[in-house]
Amino acid sequence: MCDKIHYHKINVGIIGFGTVGSGTAHLLLENSAIIKSRVGIPINLAKIADIDITTDRGVNVPKEILTTNADEIIEDPNIQIVVETVGGCGFAKDIIIKAIKAGKNVVTANKELIAKHGKELLPLAKEYGVDFMFEASVGGGIPIIGPLKTSLAGNKILEIIGIVNGTTNYILTEMKEKGADFEKVLSVAQAMGYAEANPTADVDGFDATYKLAILSSIAYNSRADYEGIYREGIRNIGIEDIKYAEEMGYVIKLLAISNEVEGKIQGRVHPTLVPKSHPLASVNGVMNAIYIKANGVQESMYFGPGAGSVATGSAIVGDIIESARNVIANNTSRIPCKCISYKPMASIDDLSCKNYIRMKAKDLPGCISRISGIFAKNDVSLESIIQKFTESGYATIIWLTHEAPEKLINKSLEEIDALDVVEKISNRIRVL
Fold first, then answer.
1. DSSP per residue over 110-130, as a string?
2. Which of 86, 159, 289, 399 has its CB 3.0 to 4.6 Å from that of 293, i.e. a possible disulfide?
3. What is the DSSP letter of 249?
4. Is the pTM of this model over 0.85?
5. Tens digit of pLDDT for each residue in 292-351?
């Protein structure tokens, strides 16, 4: 048995000194006394690597710990923990692999990397006997991966429903509260720094899909393929949809939803009508929330800032503290992610849910009965119908169905769209 090493401090190196890296450095320095009291010995910020070490990040760090060479961190035998905040799947993946093979514990916030390459990196970390932690990859500062692996470990997770992208939640909130259309609110979000110049990852649902894949893998003890998750963004949400949803007692949110159905993982990301009585309906602005149903705890919700320098840094520092304790105890991965089975991903065609459908049709006698007849023929039951007159000769009709299989909804809409009295089907949104 190896003799236990007695550490006087744990050294940390951060690779990537942008928004998240600077927030992590800020907390390590600002809360150093608190962190020391919780670990037992100091956590020392030994080195920071970034291609740009001249820009002021708003964090006062000694200039001698800054470098443009990430290998200085990876190759330093005195650094026990490497934090990756570069993002993406190219350079970030390479440096994480190098760090793991160098015997370093790794902490990251990189959701895209975990979703796409976690199946390679987690076994590699196990092989080299190091920690690979990623609490900050989902929900920013919200503790959710830790609770799934520990506090809820005695539960069977039945369903995950989350607002996990702050940009889209801000846009939908502003559309509702200001009555502004999508493009206008998006431009404001970009000006405020809530949305990227290229907003595709957020508004088209990629970011939420990566996060749902991570949560589902942990919840259902199986790797959840992000490519098997149905994805639909918010670009098609009109101010009319938000107004009509409000009239019917709903708000519209981009939700990430998964559950296990007959041995398959069903994952989906799409705009959803959420009843105003549901806890997620009141989550507004850039905030995130993750709602979990389980057979033990029943229902629980985890709420907080889903992004931001210090919020995400908070989750990273939490992982650093846990990893430091493992270093001191000469142990690693005491609570690993265990994908003990390989469950296939269910198709969206297997889904059955309520639907909101908005269409423009000719204002003619018998029009509604012709459309409702197609729904009835395809065994789609209707909960309510609202007709709004929009312009001469046309009306807007809003249909709310009862729960119905996806295939029957799609078949109905295909047949309805072919009717000569229907100008266009403007939108279809699933209902929670």
1. -HHHHHHHHHHHHHHHHHHT-
2. 159
3. T
4. yes
5. 999 999 999 999 998 889 999 999 999 999 999 999 998 876 666 666 678 999 999 999
Q: Where are the alpha helices (DSSP H) in 220-351?
A: 239-247, 309-328
User: How many CB atoms neighbour CB 101 within 10 A?
Assistant: 14
At which residue do the structure tokens 């940009």 appear?
167
Domains of the chain: 10-141+309-328 (3.40.50.720), 145-304 (3.30.360.10), 351-431 (3.30.70.260)
Helix, coil or strand: residue 96: helix
Q: Is 138 left (phi over 0), alpha (psi -120 to 50) or beta?
A: beta
Q: In the numeric block, which tokens belong to residue 429? A: 């949104």
Q: Render the burial of 272-303: b for 16+ CB within 10 Å, e for the rest.
A: bbbeeebebbebbebbbbbbbbbeeeeeeebb
Catalytic residue numbers read: 211
Tell me the residue ranges of DSSP E strands in 190-286. 230-231, 250-261, 264-275
Q: Within 13 Å, how many C-alpha atoms sit on residue 98's CB side?
A: 16
Do 311 and 140 touch, CB atoms closer than 8 A?
yes
d(CA 9, CA 15) in angstroms, rounded, equals 20
